[in-house]
Amino acid sequence: MTNDNTVDPTRLYRRRNVLKSGTAGAATLALAGCIGGGDGGDGGSGDGSGGGDVGMPDSVTVPGIYDESGATSDVGRPTAIGSRDTVEYINENDLFDVSIDHPNNDYAYEVPQAQQYYQQYTSESSPPLIIGWGTADTEALAGTVAEDEVVYVSASYSANLVTEEFPYNFFGNLDYTSQARAHLKWIADNDPEATVGFIFSNTAFGRSPVEGGKQYAEELGLDVAPDINLPLTANSATTQLRQARDQDIDYLIHQNTSAPMRVLLEDRQDIYPDLTVCGLTYTVDERVVQQSPDIFEGVRYVNAFRTFQGALDSGGMGADIIEANFEREGRSMDNPEVAQLNYVRGVIHALLALKGLQNAAEAGNDVTRGSNVRQGMFGIEDDDMFGLAEPFSYEEGDRRPTMNGRLFEVTDGSLSFDTSVELPRRDSWIGL
Q1: Is 160 helix (H, G, I), strand (E, B) or coil?
Q2: Quick one: which of 332, 308, 305 has its CA closest to 319?
Q3: Which residue did the predictor score with more confidence, 25 or 304?
Q4: Which of these ranges, 48-57, 92-101, 189-198, 330-339, has the smallest mean pLDDT?
Q5: pLDDT tens digits, residue range 190-233?
């Protein structure tokens, strides 16, 4: 990034005060109009069970379970920082009438550790909502969070998590399979004679989009090659690239994180330079592109929210939040370790929590109860997360937040927006 992105502290100060006195003040007035003084209000039970006006608590606990040192920490750490920063912004700027406590831990991408932290949090404070991380741990906890009625906003975009079986799981992106479908739709429209393949880590996360993606590729008339495995911890991809070359794959759909993506692209130069790699949401970010622009050149990418620079350029409240966070923490906008799209991902997760809580409060319901916050999540309709994402909507029976994919291409060392792909909202795709 250039020096044009240097934060003006004076401007940010003015912005924060406008937000605090305007947006937050409006929210406070709305809450005051629908929340009683603690006696249950007219017609309210006062027990926090759902209907009627209830008093507000002094604080609400929203824990976080993050990967900051494990196999996906290359993308997990900036996401965690974005969520923590934004919870602090919410509290400092009174965006919610109740202080949000955010205890959080690094589970190092170990499912048993995530389960342990979940048990710790739920036994200590009975939180209405938790911000989580990976696919394997989120799916392992999904039945439990449903039984406990804890809303779980995770960074796993597995289609399995939006089935009726797991009614308390929410996420803020195109699901993994639909990310793959967006790439496939673009390929079918632009290169219909192409052969496509799927490369992924042999994990719940890696396998998530493969079955549904291959079905859609066949529906589009694309030739589909046999699957290729690339571990999260891979330090070489020569064997995998020879497989792709021998199978005449034109486009390789890659479900992994940025670390194995870099390995794949480094080896591509020598083994199969004509191969186009189409990465899903965790495979590319500004950091890796800036570090290795030559090997990332031509890579295609999909997401439902903006890059870091795109977020700043949006000019909305989301940009204000990010800029204020960086100013408060004394961070440089030129540091790609944090100033990248995964940070935006973390901001969005915190905003989803905020909006679910706000909607529950505005309905006059107890915000410490997960069932009420779950209903609050369905109040998120055509919401672009303060300008950071494609509009999100959640409905009972269809918790896919969007079916719009934003396609990017790495060009001249920059992750550049290319086009949007709108996918059909098929009921048969829920869970697939």
Answers
A1: helix
A2: 308
A3: 304
A4: 48-57
A5: 999 999 999 999 999 999 999 999 999 999 999 999 999 999 99
C-alpha atoms less than 13 angstroms from C-alpha of 264 in its C-beta half-sphere: 34
Which CATH number does 3-172+312-394 carry? Answer: 3.40.50.2300
Domain residue ranges of the chain, discontinuous segments joined by +: 3-172+312-394, 176-307+407-425
Residues 238-252 as b or e (16 or more Cβ within 10 Å = b): eebbebbeeeebbbb
> Residue 94 carries which DSSP code?
T
Tokens 């912004």 belong to 89
Pairing of strands 251-255, 228-229: unpaired
Query: 176-307+407-425: same fold as 3-172+312-394?
Result: yes
User: Could you tell me which residues come within 8 angstroms of residue 182 by beta carbon, excluding any fewer than 6 positions away?
Assistant: 174, 302, 405, 407, 421, 423
Q: What is the DSSP string of 246-259?
A: HTT-SEEEEES-HH
For residues 317 and 117, the answer to whether their CB atoms sit within 8 Å is no
Cβ atoms within 10 Å, residue 148: 16
CA gap 293, 182 in Å, rounded: 24
Query: How many angstroms separate the most distant Cα atoms in the chain?
Result: 73
Token code pair at residue 320 = 């204000």
Sole residue written with tokens 């004394």: 330
Q: Which amino acid is at 321?
A: I
More confident of the two residues 14 and 418: 418
Q: Determine the CATH number of domain 176-307+407-425.
A: 3.40.50.2300
What percentage of the chain reaches a pLDDT higher than 70?
88
**Phi and psi, residue 230, nearest 5°:** -135, 110
CB 72 within 8 A of CB 257: yes
Q: 63 with 126: CB under 8 angstroms?
A: no
Q: Count other C-beta atoms under 10 Å from residue 122's C-beta.
A: 18
Question: pLDDT band at residue 50, thresholds of 50, 70 and 90?
Answer: very low
Q: Is 412 left (phi over 0), alpha (psi -120 to 50) or beta?
A: left
Cβ contacts of residue 409 below 8 Å, gap of 6+? 298, 299, 300, 301, 416, 418
Between the CA of residue 131 and those of 4, 31, 305, 350, what are the distances in Å?
Answer: 33, 24, 18, 8
Range from 12-16, 127-131, 151-155, 334-338 carrying the lowest mean pLDDT: 12-16
| pLDDT interval class at 53 (50, 70, 90) | low
| pLDDT band at residue 1 under the 50/70/90 scheme | very low
Q: Say how many residues make up the chain.
A: 432
Average pLDDT of 230-246? 98
